[in-house]
């Protein structure tokens, strides 16, 4: 049976809400149930590549500029393309004069196959690389943490998606509430506002605020490896299950 590749941008115009955490642990969750997953670090900060602690010669920068890249296998069923950090920012400069530069990533990866899912981990600002990633992807997945700025960030990236949709097609597939702490009034308020606005698109599962999730990147581990019995691992198992039901 032919595998239909689904490309998902994990994005929002707000930093520190859990984009990289979501890409890491949802990808790991999907890989653990036998899906083939590719992660692309689209952020010059390189948090995703740091998470997995692998260095590669050729990165997203080289893919964009020279159509050459090292895809590194980081876990069973799980591959990664590093961002190249500062080199990625330099690539943006080099591409800034190119006609229809927004479509470069889509063009470069048009023959990509063998994966069930590709996740692009975006940075919070609207960069050329982010725009390219939104062009490349079919779906948008937005994490929202427990602040009202986080909701604003979701609106901003959705406005960008509307712009992209004049040329390409990207659909909002879901919103995931992260760093949830049901004891706080803020969490209840944000949840109510998000569910009221986006209804069915909001995942039933929320990711609780959990210290193990925060610790895992420093160990270069996924939440399932770092603390398999934690609330974080339980929540990401549920997120993985719900994701598979939705897409
Ligand atoms: N549910 C959570 N509980 C506790 N800490 C979290 C949770 N989700 C993310 N974090 C931590 O919050 C910080 C920001 O998350 P990150 O995924 O890097 O956000 P972004 O990619 O949106 O900038 C990181 O230190 C991360 O480990
Ligand atoms: Mg990040």
Structure commentary:
The protein has 247 residues and is of the alpha/beta class. 43% of the residues lie in helices and 15% in strands. Helix 7 links the parallel strand 6 and strand 7 (171-177). Helix 1 (19-32) crosses helix 11 and helix 3 runs parallel beside helix 4 (86-95). The mean pLDDT is 96. The structure holds adenosine-5'-diphosphate and magnesium ion (MG).
Salient structural properties:
single chain; 247 residues; alpha/beta; Rossmann fold; seven-stranded mixed beta sheet; 11 helices; 15% strand; globular; binds adenosine-5'-diphosphate; binds magnesium ion
**CATH top level assignment:** Alpha Beta
Q: What small molecules does the structure contain?
A: adenosine-5'-diphosphate, magnesium ion
CATH architecture: 3-Layer(aba) Sandwich
Mean pLDDT: 96
Strand content: 5-15%
Please indicate the count of domains: 1
- Percent of residues in helices comes to 40-55%
Helix and strand sequence = EHEHHEEHHEHEHEHHHH
Q: Order of strands in the sheet with the most strands? A: 3-4-2-5-1-6-7
Q: How is this fold's topology laid out?
A:
Layout (H helix, E strand, L loop, with lengths): L5 E5 L8 H14 L4 E5 L5 H6 L7 H7 L5 E4 L2 E4 L4 H10 L8 H5 L8 E5 L6 H9 L2 E6 L3 H17 L6 E7 L7 H14 L12 H5 L7 H4 L4 H16 L1
Parallel strand pairs: 1-5, 1-6, 2-4, 2-5, 6-7
Antiparallel strand pairs: 3-4
Helix pairs in contact: 1-11, 3-4
The structure holds adenosine-5'-diphosphate and magnesium ion.
């Amino acid at each position: 049976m032919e595998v239909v590749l689904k490309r998902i941008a994990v994005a929002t115009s707000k930093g520190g809400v859990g984009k990289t955490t979501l890409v890491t642990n949802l990808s790991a969750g999907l890989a653990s149930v036998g899906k083939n997953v590719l992660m692309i670090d689209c952020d010059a900060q390189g948090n995703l590549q740091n998470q997995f602690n692998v260095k590669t010669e050729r990165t997203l920068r080289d893919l964009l500029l020279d159509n050459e890249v090292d895809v590194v296998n980081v876990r069973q069923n799980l591959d990664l393309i590093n961002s190249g950090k500062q080199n990625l920012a330099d690539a943006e400069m080099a591409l800034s004069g190119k006609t229809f530069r927004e479509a470069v990533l889509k063009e470069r990866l048009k023959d990509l196959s063998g994966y069930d899912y590709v996740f692009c981990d975006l940075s919070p600002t609207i960069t050329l690389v982010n725009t390219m990633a939104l062009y490349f992807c079919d779906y948008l997945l937005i994490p929202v943490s427990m602040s009202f700025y986080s909701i604003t960030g979701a609106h901003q990236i959705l406005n960008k998606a509307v712009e992209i949709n004049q040329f390409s097609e990207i659909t909002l597939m879901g919103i995931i509430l992260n760093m949830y702490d049901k004891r706080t009034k803020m969490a209840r308020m944000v949840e109510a506002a998000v569910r009221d606005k986006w209804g069915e698109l909001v995942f039933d599962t929320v990711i609780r605020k959990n210290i193990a999730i925060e610790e895992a990147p420093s160990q270069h581990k996924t939440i399932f490896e770092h603390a398999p019995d934690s609330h974080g691992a339980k929540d990401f198992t549920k997120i993985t299950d719900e994701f598979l039901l939705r897409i």
